[in-house]
Specification:
The chain is an all-alpha fold. It has helices spanning 14-36, 44-50, 53-69, 82-97, 104-107, 113-118, 124-142, 145-169, 177-180, 197-200, 202-219, 236-263, 285-291, 296-319, 328-334, 336-351, 354-360, 369-394, 397-417, 420-428, 440-446, 460-469, 476-489; strands at 266-270, 273-278, 281-283. A hairpin with a 2-residue loop joins strand 1 (266-270) and strand 2.
């Protein structure tokens, strides 16, 4: 039987697993390059490629929802407890990444108003969870997989159509901060939603549409045949060919329509401000730049590239000989949350810690291409090893539960004890503080220093005297940066 005529119903969608796994790997590359590659070295094509990671990740989440929610008999799997607990845990991880910290001190005496606001930043994990909750609710409302598939496509089209208008008019600006970022990406007091539901829910919704198609053509046996031993409507090869055709159509239309969709209209000057009156509303030039990636053609073009890449991955997976042993790509797909959390904490909590930067010299934008690529390979390799290792741990439930309990206990101890040396440090040296903590002026008074509006020093020499007393070695460049920072607090120079 040829690949084109093999109608055996699918038990697992290989191409979406490959897509999710590679998206995780490229995501690590994105963050490493953004942190360490010197400014001006990154080409435009790499920026566009990296911009496909989050759409791939979110689309795969929507795709998997359909397969995991609808049974082959058309009924729905229960939402509680497994699905609810899984989504709740992901949401907990999402907010933990933007929390003031993981210690009690971070949440109390070391907390600042800006850090508290950062907690509500809408990142990719929040986007995925809230999108899946909406789609889960829709699935349980209609309870029909075919109707759900059509409604998911309608959401994927409707949201990018209205998203630019929501962004430009700021309809969410008056909403409560924790939910404001779900509607648009407008910055608010230094807090910007990176992945607002408008337009980002379009990607998991389109993934749910594709998942519904895959379920119909590849998972469900033909009506009238036996559930076991029946035949699917399409072969895997035929489905991949259809996926490639759909991707090519989306890419062609999206690429051709982007300019006219965004810039088509008439420029009219109103009260001295030039506004483009288009099909979606009236926008300034700066607003058009902000909403460029929210339009329907932009979403369609990115989906087109993703489908073509997914088709290629599926074809390779279909044709390649199977090998024994661990598969790092499937490990990255299966343990995507673990790798997401691990690499972010490794990058921003460990490698970018001041002590580590002082030891390695790897500060922001400090490396060329060679150093960046070597560091990228090392961090990707470490994360893939962790994913494979944790999959082996999963095969021993008792060991997995033991490690989880120890991790929770360690986090509890760290929450109680961690961070307090920072408080002690700034109580002794309030001159060195960079954040306006509530106790700084009291510490300044104990040292005989004058109070300031926020407890932060306003005199660079005050900072340098304390740094010298604590034997902190500062380069001329570091001194210049610190001087500019301190002078900016007063809105002028000294």
């Amino acid at each position: 039987m040829s690949l084109w005529t093999d109608l055996t119903p699918s038990k697992r969608c290989d191409w979406i697993d490959q897509l999710r796994g590679w998206a995780v790997i490229v995501m690590i590359e994105v963050h490493v390059v953004n942190v360490w590659l010197a400014s001006g070295l990154r080409p435009d094509w790499l920026n566009y490629l990296n911009g496909l990671v989050a759409p791939s990740f979110t689309m795969a989440a929507g795709y998997s929802l359909v397969i995991s929610t609808f049974r082959t008999d058309g009924t729905l799997r229960p939402f509680w407890p497994d699905t609810a607990r899984r989504l709740g845990f992901i949401l907990l991880c999402a907010y933990a990444l933007h929390a003031p910290g993981i210690t009690l001190a971070d949440w109390t005496v070391l907390n600042t108003p800006q850090q508290a606001r950062e907690l509500f930043k809408i990142d990719v994990l929040q986007c995925i969870v809230f999108s899946l909750l909406i789609l889960q609710g829709l699935a349980r409302l209609v309870r029909n997989p075919r109707v759900f598939t059509g409604l998911a496509l309608a959401i994927a089209v409707f949201v990018p159509v209205v998203a630019p208008h929501l962004w430009a008019t700021g309809v969410a600006d008056g909403l409560w901060l924790p939910i404001r970022g779900l509607f648009n990406g407008n910055p608010d007091r230094g807090v910007q939603a990176l992945f607002p539901l408008f337009p980002w829910i379009a990607f998991p919704a389109f993934g749910a549409f594709l998942g519904g198609l895959y379920r119909h053509f590849r998972v469900m046996p033909v009506e009238g045949s036996e559930p076991t031993g029946g035949k699917a409507r399409w072969s895997e090869a035929r489905f991949l060919a259809g996926l490639a055709l759909l991707g090519a159509l989306l890419l062609t239309w999206g690429t051709a329509a982007q300019e006219s969709w965004l810039w088509g209209g008439t420029w009219i000057q109103q009260n001295g401000v030039w506004m483009l009156h288009s099909r979606t509303g009236a926008f300034t030039y700066s607003e058009l730049g902000a909403i460029a990636n929210t339009t329907l053609p932009s979403v369609a073009a990115r989906l087109g590239w993703i489908l073509l890449a997914g088709t290629l991955m599926g074809a390779v997976e279909l044709l390649r000989p199977r090998w024994k042993g661990p598969n790092p790509i499937k490990a990255a797909s299966a343990e995507s949350l673990l790798l997401y959390m691990l690499h972010l904490n490794l990058l921003f909590s460990v490698l970018l810690a001041p002590a580590v930067i002082g030891l390695t010299g790897w500060g922001w934008g400090s490396l060329g291409w060679t150093g960046t690529l070597l560091l990228t390979a090392a961090i990707i390799g470490l994360n893939l090893w962790a994913g494979i290792a944790w999959q082996k741990v999963r095969q021993t439930p008792d060991l997995m539960r033991s490690l989880q309990h120890k991790a929770v206990a360690a986090l509890g101890i760290w929450c109680a004890l961690g961070g307090w040396w920072t408080v002690r440090h700034f109580l002794q040296s309030p001159e060195l503080a960079k954040e306006p903590y509530a106790f700084l002026n009291a510490a300044r008074a104990r040292k005989g220093l004058p109070p300031t509006p926020d407890g932060l020093c306003r005199d660079p020499e005050e900072y340098f005297r304390e740094a010298g007393r604590r034997k902190l070695h500062l380069s001329p460049e570091a001194k210049a940066d610190i001087t500019r920072l301190i002078q900016a607090r007063s809105g002028g120079t000294r």
